[in-house]
Amino acid sequence: MPSEPLILGFDTSAAHCAAALLRGDQIIAERLELMTRGQAERLMVLLEEILAEGNAAWSDLTAIGIGVGPGNFTGIRIGVSAARGLALGLEIPAVGVTGFEARQTDGELPAIPAPRDHVYAALPGQAPRLMPASEATDAARGAGLSFAPEASPTGLAASIARITALRFEQVTQAPAPLYMRAADAAPSRDVPPALIDG
């Protein structure tokens, strides 16, 4: 009888590092660490700790699930790059899971906080988009849904791992970031150096 799939799910799309290890249908290790910086340094160490907690090794993994956003640009890039690199090195699938999918709860409007009193929200019957929090609140109320956007909800990585368990056998593309707004950083105004032939 084949062993149960072992799925590592993680997310760095907001001010956190979150990771969970799923064996079959049971979460065997999970952690959510809040942090405003240092995700790149902390992530791989955290993943090692989660594997150790679950008495597992990298080579035991069946698939990797990663939160692809929307959220913090740098955080999303850190997580997606790590997932793609690990999947390539371990020769296992990596599955991208959006923040809306990972936060899907009956009776609640899936939403993620964004800067300047805005949220990323998936209104019923519409494509997810960036909107003022007040608009999302009104839409949720009108649809009879609760509305409590949370950047770092408990169980986020576990949800990513569970969704990955349902999808990893069908995945055909590497995960890609889900960006829903332009970057805050402006392009450099410096004149590029002249290239000299010869």
- Cα-atom Rg, whole angstroms? 18 Å
Task: Flag low-confidence runs.
Answer: none
- SSE succession: EEEHEHEHEEEHH
What overall form do the CA principal axes indicate? globular
Q: What is the domain tally?
A: 2
Give the termini distance in whole angstroms: 66 Å
What's the SSE blueprint?
Blueprint: E1 6-11, E2 16-23, E3 26-34, H1 39-53, E4 63-67, H2 73-90, E5 94-97, H3 99-102, E6 111-114, E7 118-121, E8 129-132, H4 133-142, H5 156-167
Parallel strand pairs: 1-4, 4-5
Antiparallel strand pairs: 1-2, 2-3, 6-7, 7-8
Helix pairs in contact: 1-2
Brief write-up:
The protein has 198 residues and is α/β, with parallel strands linked by helices.
Please describe what this structure looks like:
- This protein is α/β, with parallel strands linked by helices and 198 residues long.
- The chain folds into two domains: 1-103 and 152-181, Nucleotidyltransferase, domain 5 (2-Layer Sandwich), CATH 3.30.420; 108-149, no CATH class.
- The chain has helices at residues 39-53, 73-90, 99-102, 133-142, 156-167, and strands at 6-11, 16-23, 26-34, 63-67, 94-97, 111-114, 118-121, 129-132.
- The strands form two sheets. Strands 3-2-1-4-5 form a five-stranded mixed β-sheet, sandwiched between helices.
- Helix 1 packs across helix 2.
- The radius of gyration is 18 Å and the shape is globular.
